[in-house]
Amino acid sequence: MAAETGSAPVGATQTTIRVIEALRELDAAGVSAVADHIDVPTSTAFDHLRTLEQNEFVRREGDEYVLSSQFLEIGGYCRNNDHLYRTAEPELQKMANETGEHANLMIEEFGRGVFYAKAKGRETFRLDTHIGKRVNLQTTSAGKAILAELPDDRVEEIVDDHGLPGITEHTITDRADLFEELDTVREQGFATDTEERLKGVHCVGAALTDDDGDPIGAVSVSGPKNGMQDERFFDDIPELVLRTANVIEVNMKYQ
Amino acid sequence: MAAETGSAPVGATQTTIRVIEALRELDAAGVSAVADHIDVPTSTAFDHLRTLEQNEFVRREGDEYVLSSQFLEIGGYCRNNDHLYRTAEPELQKMANETGEHANLMIEEFGRGVFYAKAKGRETFRLDTHIGKRVNLQTTSAGKAILAELPDDRVEEIVDDHGLPGITEHTITDRADLFEELDTVREQGFATDTEERLKGVHCVGAALTDDDGDPIGAVSVSGPKNGMQDERFFDDIPELVLRTANVIEVNMKYQ
DNA sequence: CCTCGCTTCCGGCTCTACCGGAACGGTTAT
DNA sequence: ATAACCGTTCCGGTAGAGCCGGAAGCGAGG
To answer: Which residue intervals define the domain IclR-ED in the entry (chains A, B) (predicted)?
Structure first.
């Protein structure tokens, strides 16, 4: 989360958000645990928890507070009304069925990649990527596909904001390397990820662009490294991913 | 949403929440549209929108504000850490595969049913149930299964709070009918829904209970009315749903 | 160039968010 | 039993901040 320590216009809301963050980090916690965590008096934490509870953002579980499913509800509602999601979701399913691998839809927000939707293939190895999860764009194929469609100065800005932290030994951590990689992506038309975010996982991603050529997201397929190699990884899967991306782009316009 | 008009301890937070609700209802809106909608000066709406934006709960799209995927992120994160979800999710998948229909996991929160997870079967007719969607418990099979495991006075309380509004012509709208139905559910061990929330859709649901016998959720299968009839609807599917519920209950304890 | 609608900024007044402290309630130890 | 202790809940005063009106930017359109 941003944790802008700069003064927010509405300080009380800022405090409430800190309470939410605390509950998220603590999973379940009592009033005083929350108060300690964000360094406010218990009475203050209590006021905010109660306000959140009244609005059903927080629920009591025994003698502790937990975040409710209200967040999921709002997020799910917005996503369900989203034209991109509605258009892409069925195509994701198809892609997952055809490949047997996981298919993902990513969007960019605040300079980071959001796993916006996923479809499971036959291989149901457990992914760490919960819905909505945010990652640095350069660590995924879909993210790199998006970056490749953004103007250079915007990429610079994103790198300035979020850096290039190494997640695995294969993650791109150098700025020049990144731009070189983005050149390759633009040449190929698709992006790859060879264990750059998760050991043992390979991905192929392609950007979705609007009429102006601006990226509105990206789709990708991810699977175990062993099954994702050679022609399948460099030809078959990319072709399918690109075709799917194309179908989604077209359907975005005419329905 | 609750819309507790009673005074919240932290009024500023209450206002922020109203801004969020407004954005949700308006989909995308400018400062003044939000201000009008919740009847505050534009400058106030602006302050709150800016605070939300700084914390990445709201994003600018052109010259309008929209809710960001932050809600999905928080909700998805919590769900992913949830023992019930982690345990039930793979079983849902299996159930969807075996039946070819949609499989759902519902939990109860604030007296309403939350569609907490779903797995798609082969029949991919478009459901209106986005993830996190809240419904009145008595309108779904999973919800009735949960109600059947709650003490009568709690059921009374829930009905008092949320009423028994009719959604389709088959929805239970009478209190006595509801209790009669819950008796049947307890006898059978599972609950059914014959077009009580959606025309043309039948469901079968079974509750998940903890060691104390309190319901922690319910699983259900829903499909088109035509395919969900006779032995399949009254025997085969119920058996599978009950078996799945049982597997989840056991796995909850030993892993 | 002027108008109009919207967003953004600014500063003062008043209200309220915040806090300390006290009461309450449940649990454990003596 | 009873006391001690922990966390939660309640309460009231104060000073600091949220709210608001008004004005300044800023585009779009005539």
So the answer is: 70-254
Q: Which CATH architecture has domain A11-68?
A: Orthogonal Bundle (1.10)
**Residues forming a β-bridge with B107:** B114
CATH, domain A74-253, list 3.40.30.10, 3.30.450.40, 3.30.365.10, 3.20.20.70: 3.30.450.40
Residues of B in contact with A74 (CB under 8 A): 20, 24, 67, 71, 75, 132
C-alpha distances (whole Å) from B136 to each of A165, B48, B106, B173, B193 are 46, 32, 11, 11, 13
Calpha distance B235→B202 (Å, rounded):
14
- Å from A54 (CA) to D7 (C1')? 21
Q: How do beta strands B134-135 and B191-194 pair?
A: unpaired
Residue in A71, A104, A122, A133 to test binding to B, most B beta-carbons within 10 Å: A71
CA of B215 to C1' of C7 (A): 50
Kindly report the pTM of this predicted structure. Answer: 0.93
Q: In the predicted model, what is the mean pLDDT of residues A213-240?
A: 93
Rounded to whole angstroms, the distance from the CA of residue B9 to the C1' of nucleotide C16 is 10
Q: How far is CA B225 from CA B197, B198, B202, B203, B233, in A?
A: 12, 10, 5, 9, 9
- A104 to A117, A140, A192, B208: CA distances (angstroms): 6, 11, 14, 31
Query: Which regions of chain A does DSSP assign to beta strands (E)?
Result: 58-61, 64-67, 102-109, 112-119, 134-136, 191-194, 201-209, 215-224
Only one residue has tokens 């406010």, namely A40
Strand D: which bases are under 7 Å from protein Cβ?
A: 7-12, 17-23
Burial of B187 (0-12, 13-18, 19+ CB in 10 A): exposed
Nearest chain A alpha carbon to B20? A74
**Interchain CB contact of A2 with B (< 8 Å):** yes
Running along chain B, 255 residues long, what does each successive block of 10 average in pLDDT? 52 91 92 91 91 93 93 97 95 94 96 95 78 97 97 94 95 96 97 95 96 93 90 92 97 85
Task: Report the C-alpha gap between A155 and A8 in whole angstroms.
Answer: 27
Q: In chain A, what are the domain boundaries?
A: 11-68, 74-253
| Count of pairs with CB atoms under 8 A, one residue in A, one in B | 198
